[in-house]
Amino acid sequence: MKNILKVLFTICFLVIIAASCSKSDSQSTPELSFPAIKAAFGDNIDLNSLSNYSGQIKPAYIIKDNTGANPILNAKATLGRVLFYDKSLSVNNSVSCSSCHKQEFAFSDSALVSSAILGGVTARHSMRLVNSRFAVEQKFFWDERAASLELQTTQPMMDHSEMGFSGQNGRPAFSTLLTKLQGIPYYNELFKFAYNDVNVTESRLQECLAQFIRSIQSFDSKYDAGRVQVANDNQNFPNFTAEENSGKNLFITPPVFDANSSRIAGGVGCNACHNAPEFDIDPNSRNNGIIGVINGANRDLTVTRAPSLRDLTRVGGRVNSPMMHTGANRTVRAAINHYNTIALNQNQNPNLDARLAPNRIGQSLNLTENEVSALVAFLQTLSGTNVYTDKKWSDPFL
């Protein structure tokens, strides 16, 4: 009897200890309170349950990654999301990064030029930001003047016309923006959460914005559904139509030119500059035959940057934004036709990419209408759907 009582006592004692430990554990990690974030964003931002930016799945065949020394962390990407959509980053609280890079257009703008502060406009049309991380090219802006995505993120804030913190002609300097953000309660909570202090610095803005932008990825296209079923891009995709497979083969296969530069065999070689499966721009590309600027006749020979061709259109074929750095082409067919015939004029365009001047004369692909249609059909297979609706990339202020 004594032994039974001893066993029962031991069991009760262990149960009490276990309950006490469980209670202690639950009390040691209470949900943190963020009243300013709650007031500003409601349930759109929850620092106790962060959106997954860092652990997103990408296909095994996607191998390019320009993250470098700024890996994506959920806390900092969340802060980057708020910064991306916050109009407080402009001098008159009217423009944010998202004013030019809209989720509904694959983070580009359907307008030729985007709206800036005080009725102004941007000098160029806004480049798509989808899959910025998955590229060899690391420079940004159409003329590649930013050596990295980090450096690019704060330059529009300092631009006199775009967001206004230029320190010129009566406009406040960039330091004024840092002080302004430091005085906003939800940034105190966000920076404290991400960095353990409330200090707002340019390098922190760059770090967080770049992490958020690099998190924007699109790999749910018809192309991806086909690519995962084959060993390489040269094989026919089982889910493609005959026209789409024909367009893919034209895109990937280099052209063969005769002595007069008339294409006589092969494909059209788009892949030489826009390499599958990321479809990013070759960083060694030179001018593509477009030498003008938006709404003007000035020459521009330095432009070599281009976004990934992914989500050039939405499913169904609607173009997300004007194409080329001048926005000269409003349809995919028009963009293809630009590459069909390119004149070589050393005086007019001494920086033309050599791949567009075979045999040192102008390019003449001699594409048929059927070939153009096939290329259009293939490029439309690069369009996903999730990037346009995923909440973690959406406006938290709504």
Short structural description:
By secondary structure, this protein is mostly helical. The protein has 12 helices and 6 strands.
Outline the secondary-structure elements.
Layout: H1 2-28, H2 35-41, H3 74-85, H4 97-100, H5 149-158, H6 174-182, H7 185-195, H8 202-215, H9 222-227, H10 242-252, E1 255-257, E2 263-266, E3 274-275, E4 280-281, H11 332-340, E5 341-342, E6 363-364, H12 369-380
Antiparallel strand pairs: 1-2, 3-4, 5-6
Helix pairs in contact: 2-7, 3-7, 3-8, 5-8, 10-12, 11-12
Offer a few descriptive terms.
single chain; 398 residues; mainly alpha; Cytochrome Bc1 Complex, Chain D, domain 2; 2 domains; two-stranded antiparallel sheet; 12 helices; 33% helix; Cytochrome_c_Peroxidase/MauG; peroxidase; electron transfer activity
Write up this protein.
It contains 12 helices and 6 strands. It folds into 2 domains: 35-218 and 388-393, Cytochrome Bc1 Complex, Chain D, domain 2, CATH 1.10.760.10; 222-382, Orthogonal Bundle (Cytochrome Bc1 Complex, Chain D, domain 2), CATH 1.10.760. The model is unreliable at 1-28 (pLDDT under 50). The chain is mainly alpha-helical and 398 residues long.
As a whole number of angstroms, the C-alpha radius of gyration is 26 Å
The rough form would be described as globular
Strand order of the largest sheet: 1-2
| Class inferred from helices and paired strands | mainly alpha
**CATH level-four homologous superfamily name of the largest domain:** Cytochrome c-like domain
According to CATH, what is the topology of the largest domain? Cytochrome Bc1 Complex, Chain D, domain 2
Helix content: 25-40%
Please count the beta strands (DSSP E, at least 2 residues each).
Answer: 6
InterPro entries: Cyt_c-like_dom, Cyt_c-like_dom_sf, Cytochrome_c_Peroxidase/MauG, Di-haem_cyt_c_peroxidsae
Protein name: Cytochrome c peroxidase
GO molecular function: cytochrome-c peroxidase activity; electron transfer activity; heme binding; metal ion binding
Domain Cytochrome c: 242-383
